[in-house]
Amino acid sequence: MAGGRGERFWPQSRQARPKHLLPIVGDKPMVAQTVARLAGLVQPERVYVLTNVEHLAAIRGACPEIPPAQIIGEPVGRDTAPAAALAALLIRRRDPQGVLALLAADSAIHDAAGFRTTLSAAFTTAAKEDYIFTIGIPPAYPAIAYGYLRRGEKLGECAELPWFKVAKFVEKPDRPTAERYLAEGNYWWNAGMFVTRASVLESAFTKFTPSLAAGMADLDSRLDAGDTLPVALAAVYPGLTKISVDYAVMEKAANIAVFAAAFDWDDVGEWPALVRHATADAVGNVTRGEAVLHEARNNIVIGEPGHLVAVLGVDDLVVVHTPDATLVCPKSRAQELKKLLKDVEARPGGARWL
Amino acid sequence: MAGGRGERFWPQSRQARPKHLLPIVGDKPMVAQTVARLAGLVQPERVYVLTNVEHLAAIRGACPEIPPAQIIGEPVGRDTAPAAALAALLIRRRDPQGVLALLAADSAIHDAAGFRTTLSAAFTTAAKEDYIFTIGIPPAYPAIAYGYLRRGEKLGECAELPWFKVAKFVEKPDRPTAERYLAEGNYWWNAGMFVTRASVLESAFTKFTPSLAAGMADLDSRLDAGDTLPVALAAVYPGLTKISVDYAVMEKAANIAVFAAAFDWDDVGEWPALVRHATADAVGNVTRGEAVLHEARNNIVIGEPGHLVAVLGVDDLVVVHTPDATLVCPKSRAQELKKLLKDVEARPGGARWL
Description:
Spore Coat Polysaccharide Biosynthesis Protein SpsA, Chain A, 10 helices, globular
């Protein structure tokens, strides 16, 4: 799933160039890293990318090894449930017993081997168990930016990796709650990764979101009747309800299980998250490109080749320069970028910077 | 006097493009505004600009009405005393009774008529009185960035403008002292403008800085012998001692008088000074070019056409974008730019940004 509006890493990310198309963490577009991370486990000809139609060309450029027809543009954004249902439909049509992994295109995962080990165990298990498996990330710190899930009873094990019933999903907690989750040890980050047989996921949609299931049935018929996928999507997708897969299915279905991730994971949801993936200087500054800092601490400063960003006497700021726009904000307010971008959009001609 | 190293308004100002060549305040280079402000009082053919040799071409471009030979490059910077002595020499050679005004090329003065009225009175008085006249600026606020002078007894009047003996010059004060000066009413800002007969100034140099006077006598002889001014300057100027006109003469001579300025004056010594010459928005932000601010107060934000500077949630910052360098610093630390620029210079290849 390569969605996103390009807001959280503005001005590097834009509507036409969201985070998954940028090397925010790592040295190539994050969607390309996501595909590369599957190497040896899932061949490119079995990878599908669901994205916005306006990003089709860019994704095809970033992922040339994926068959172009499997890079699929949603005519309109409808959140993750329709995307998941579409994935289930396409995989089930290809193989009625097919197992799928739903992955975000823009997560940072450094331990690719551990990732494949975990995913492989989940694939093996999902092929025979009627569960939707999530991947839970044992928290590394008391994050307040992620949803959590509480692990229930152990249900099984595969390749020495245990899996558990999910007792419940919980929203992003406040700091004390996050600290309690960390201390209790049975709360894991909900990474939004799911592994399941396509047919199991389709059954869940039929049960909990019948209108979405009906839309998918319509799509299925149109494909049977010979429509191309883009034509069928254009007819059906706009009529679907916008809803997240968590809300539509995961928080409702009883057959949700979780594998503990044997790897690191980071959603990298905003500029300050970079600090977790970069080497800071002695006073906590993370810099890229040309940057000079004087008596300045704990800043994130992104210049570019040939353009110097010079910072004096400030702490805890994000400063990002791009050829046509520069951002300055405190790290603590980076999650409010959307509000700033509304003001940018409201400016005459401001849309050119979005 | 068009000196300056281009540091205080970095990154807009550079070594090759100091403040007086920029429209920091106003809509044309400040040196051109300075010349224009004299219109009707001093014709361009009687204006001399003393500058660094590397800025000759730029000043000639900015001030096409001044005879090119009167735009004079100092081979090396030697502070204001040698420049003042050179000015006195050149004017006295042109007219033994000549009166000169020594003016900075980069001050902001909005009331040009009041400026000319004051200067005219000083010219008239200096033509017959053996004084070096300074122009004192009645303080508008308790500035700590300027030197002051204390007015002594009234010595005369011209065109209804009184002039006084200068009791003493004082260095930049601390805040409580500046407030006392403002309250006492007889302390004026030392604007570094001087009006005097050339011969009177030469006498002062002879008395208080004989080595400088000797250097000027050498220069005088070389010009008499037919050397061009650039050739003579190249021979003599590097041997002169670096010293300010205040320290060399003004603080020592007894014949220093002061006219009160009948006009506004601002040295515009650093980015935060812009606030005094611009209209701020409702929450105190001064912006130029393309800028969007969200929940941000009392900032100075300088973008450019086509490049957006977007600021979220910060107060009291200076953010200046130029095509090849961007500055971020608190207003309160803008006077420390020099320290930052030392770090820039120390960076491999960093000199390109100075």
